[in-house]
Amino acid sequence: xxxxxxxxxxxxxxxxxxxxxxxxxxxxxxxxxxxxxxxxxxxxxxxxxxxxxxxxxxxxxxxxxxxxxxxxxxxxxxxxxxxxxxxxxxxxxxxxxxxxxxxxxxxxxxxxxxxxxxxxxxxxxxxxxxxxxxxxxxxxxxxxxxxxxxxxxxxxxxxxxxxxxxxxxxxxxxxxxxxxxxxxxxxxxxxxxxxxxxxxxxxxxxxxxxxxxxxxxxxxxxxxxxxxxxxxxxxxxxxxxxxxxxxxxxxxxxxxxxxxxxxxxxxxxxxxxxxxxxxxxxxxxxxxxxxxxxxxxxxxxxxxxxxxxxxxxxxxxxxxxxxxxxxxxxxxxxxxx
Length: 337
Ligand SMILES: NC(=O)c1ccc[n+]([C@@H]2O[C@H](COP(=O)([O-])OP(=O)(O)OC[C@H]3O[C@@H](n4cnc5c(N)ncnc54)[C@H](O)[C@@H]3O)[C@@H](O)[C@H]2O)c1
Known about the structure:
The protein is of the alpha/beta class. 38% of the residues lie in helices and 20% in strands. A seven-stranded mixed sheet has the order 12-11-7-10-9-8-13. A six-stranded parallel sheet has the order 3-2-1-4-5-6, sandwiched between helices. Helix 5 links the parallel strand 5 (88-91) and strand 6. The structure holds nicotinamide-adenine-dinucleotide (NAD). Residues 6-12, 33-35, 38, 54, 68-71, 73, 91-92, 118, 120, 159, 169, 275 line the site of nicotinamide-adenine-dinucleotide. It comes from Streptomyces albiflavescens.
């Protein structure tokens, strides 16, 4: 399968390596980037082909497109692929804002093409087991969910202005997991954020830390927090508490947190430090799934409508923080019919 990958940055490099090892793709991979030299370096390392620009991805007769460029470029590239009739895997989120998201989805709908979004936690062993536990009824009625995403260190400074900000870029993963695990929709959010950390966040008009309280349509309450500055390590967890039992995702011998109890577990020897090591197997599995989707061997595990719902929750958080009030999801355009 000839796949054209657009964006040879942090995640693009990882996805390109995964694809170049895939038996269906291998040496047929084509990579490109706005920074041509970067695309060449990556292609040379993997034995792939570097395209001189994005245009060639749409003229060299590829079978599918993988978009790993900056978020600000996603909407236009999804539209272009849709108009070319090509299946797309695109990193989250669909676009930096709601109008861009709805426009991209309209193009995909009009073309009738495939769009799979990169919510890799849907392929993570721990999150998958949590979904099964909740859906089986083992926890009883779920009353509380606590989700968190803590980056060990901030992303590169030039990443921020193109990212959509902390809710859309980072917490969007937790919003997707809340829906995917519980099977319920969020109906209201109350969000706040802080920019008291490194100046680069203030200067980009972003925040470095955020918290939100979310109400699900069955009355379950959830909290989510995110930070870009968690020196102890990369900490992505979710606790789900029901009337019968409670479980934790992301709690293992690499969780970067120290217990203050004399009989507590010892601190992790090798705490998780970043998303690529923590979610490596999940990233590989989501791309393997994409190849199967393109081949018609399986259903799309995360289509545009799913990603839109996660983005609408992020939009509600942005509005809630700005107006300092609870926001009903019904206020955010783009709801399903
Ligand atoms: N699923 C995840 O856990 C996860 C993790 C990291 C990043 N991401 C997503 O992946 C995307 C890329 O993130 P990153 O961390 O790799 O960023 P990055 O800044 O490391 O890389 C982005 C690359 O895109 C290129 N680029 C920008 N605009 C382009 C355009 N119009 N055409 C071609 N190339 C273009 C840049 O030159 C750069 O090489 C973002 O949308 C981000 O949200 C997802």
